[in-house]
């Protein structure tokens, strides 16, 4: 599933290609993928910006006819969703669910494709984050100043769950999934099975720094591509070459040489070094 670094890479890859373009027509091949479409027309929208919140991609729109009327396309990729920019209109496949026809200096197409079809696109009012409960409840952005030591410390102290489950909880901090959660805990030297409330202040700071480091590093390597994830141009990321624990069970830990193990923690396959992570 695309996590913060992957969604951010998709965003950055699409900004120069679609910002300032107009959605002149929308093809809906699978209506269940597009939510709220009945409420607003699906053409005549100028794309003014692309933002990201947690694992959501947000596309800001203004109506080209009524100047002050705006809207927001909110996209969650879930397992296998892809948003692909094309300079030629291709024949849709059975996995092409939504197609936006774009007009700028040239014509182009933006296809939402999804093999598993869990991904969703919501059409909301301008700055309509509150219309969607998933978005309204999100915790702070980990790479922003909003994510303070104080707020993180207060949240983990109240948790009865494992620190792994706490990091995956989008209301604690937004955008972390299984890959970057495991990598951050390894870097901080913290066992994912530990109770969140057992972390010392020093460990809390270490973990917060580690989260910021792995997310930034992930963005720098254009995300992690194991199977499905690609950016808006279909390009793969290469952070998978730099992972220290994720999907490396049975291999040697880069620090101590002992075996990386995989265990179910917080309902997810969790990778860690029992020797380095206390
Ligand atoms: Zn180790």
Can you offer a commentary on this structure?
By secondary structure, this protein is α+β, with helices and mostly antiparallel strands. The chain has two domains: 133 residues, Alpha-Beta Barrel (N-terminal domain of MutM-like DNA repair proteins), CATH 3.20.190; 124 residues, Helicase, Ruva Protein, domain 3 (Orthogonal Bundle). It is 23% helix and 26% strand. The chain contains six helices and eleven strands. The strands form two sheets. The protein has a nine-stranded mixed beta sheet with strand order 2-9-5-4-3-1-7-8-6. Strands 10-11 form a two-stranded antiparallel sheet. Helix 1 packs parallel to helix 6 and helix 5 crosses helix 6. The longest helix has 20 residues. The mean pLDDT is 94. Bound molecules: zinc ion (ZN). The site of zinc ion has 7 residues, from loops.
Judged by helices, strands and strand pairing, the structural class is: alpha+beta
Beta-strand proportion: 25-35%
Identify the CATH architecture of the largest domain.
Alpha-Beta Barrel
Helicity range of the residues? 10-25%
How many domains, in number, for the residues? 2
Main sheet, how many strands, which sense, barrel? Answer: 9 strands, mixed
Kindly, what is the distance between the CA atoms of the first and last residues, rounded to a whole number of angstroms? Answer: 28 Å
Find the CATH topology of the largest domain.
Answer: N-terminal domain of MutM-like DNA repair proteins
Spatial extent as radius of gyration: 20 Å
Q: Count the strands?
A: 11
Mean pLDDT: 94
Pattern of helices and strands = HEEEEEEEEEHHHHHEE
- Shape by Cα distribution: globular
The strand order across the widest sheet is 2-9-5-4-3-1-7-8-6
Bound molecules: zinc ion
Report the uncertain regions: none
CATH class of the largest domain: Alpha Beta
**Number of helices, where a helix is a run of at least 4 consecutive DSSP H or I residues:** 6
CATH superfamily annotation of the largest domain: MutM-like, N-terminal
